[in-house]
Amino acid sequence: MTRTVPFLARMQDDERAAWMEALPAALAAAGLADVAVHPLDRLDTDARQAARVAIVANPEPADLLELPNLVWVQSLWAGVERLLSELPPSALQIVRMTDPQMAETMAEAVLAWTLYLHRDMPRYRAQQRARVWHELPLRLPSQRRIGLLGLGTLGRAAARRLIANGFAVAGWSRTPADVAGVDCHHGPSGLVAVLERADIAVALLPLTAETRGLLDKTRMALLPRGAAVINFARGPILDTDALRDLLDSGHLSHAVLDVFEHEPLPADDPLWAHPQITVLPHISAPTTPQTAAKIAADNLAAFFATGAIPQAVDRARGY
Ligand code: NDP
């Protein structure tokens, strides 16, 4: 008999097609050739009642309430903040995607945009537009201090790449961390220490009640004059009005934003046209279907074989 796993995803059609190819192949490879993945609207009442696990990608949280016997969900995305904040309290376990490939993709993005800022590309681009031939002073990577906000799976992978490229890296986490080559800080006073010494601050934090609005005007003003900001985490972590004020006043030099309060970023949003802001369409670390589908399928196979649920996020902590 075919077993059905609901698939609740809000994604582009081409992305959906890639997953619909990768997931069945990975399930078959994991010994689950009898498991079919179907969108919620294709499931009848019996299938909805029978579902104990679902695969999700940025779903409407309320849709999960259509599956009353769900025990856990496997998210294909690493960020699950909407599920955590909008689902009513219950025993439902939320497992986010932790894929070593995603960490490497994020580390590559952090390195790429750090190099963009480090080698003054925004200013050379502006100089070209104004036909200005002017050599800016060269700084070595060892003279460029990077402050990583978040030392989890992604932050640690980013730290490795930055250190390998010679940058001076400090990091901040909620609890004490020990990461080779990183000047580690934690807690409120640790944030001040990291920001005060960061030429480039990189946000790699989950969005939680504690991190929402974390990078406000006061905290971003702690960055040294001329510093830059990269937000690859979640939009609401950073106050974009405060950011624009600090860029316009000359305190900050540039910002690279991959994530926004409202995505897609509305066409009339002033961030699009700001000369010192680089807008990216949430692309710093997309999930790779080939590797992530295998992780999801292996997790499902373990659950069907033994009832084991992979490590879930801590709903009270928010990540
Ligand atoms: P992890 O859970 O592995 O790490 C989170 C880190 O943030 C930990 O170091 C944690 O501290 C720290 N942290 C959490 N809350 C606080 C706080 N209040 N104060 C200080 N530090 C805090 O997450 P990942 O590294 O896997 O991912 C981070 C986020 O990146 C995801 O939640 C997601 O939102 C975003 N993301 C963005 C993508 C994109 O394409 N733009 C792609 C993938 C993810 P501690 O170590 O003490 O627990």
TrEMBL record:
What InterPro entries has UniProt attached to this entry?
D-isomer_DH_NAD-bd, NAD(P)-bd_dom_sf
CDD domains, A to Z:
GDH_like_2
Q: Which GO terms describe its molecular function?
A: NAD binding; oxidoreductase activity
Domain of life, per lineage: Bacteria
Fetch the Gene3D superfamilies from UniProt. Answer: NAD(P)-binding Rossmann-like Domain
| Keyword annotations of the record | NAD, Oxidoreductase
**Ranges where the D-isomer specific 2-hydroxyacid dehydrogenase NAD-binding domain occurs:** 113-284
| Protein's UniProt keywords contain Transferase | no
- Put simply, this protein is called D-isomer specific 2-hydroxyacid dehydrogenase, NAD-binding protein
The source organism is Polymorphum gilvum (strain LMG 25793 / CGMCC 1.9160 / SL003B-26A1)
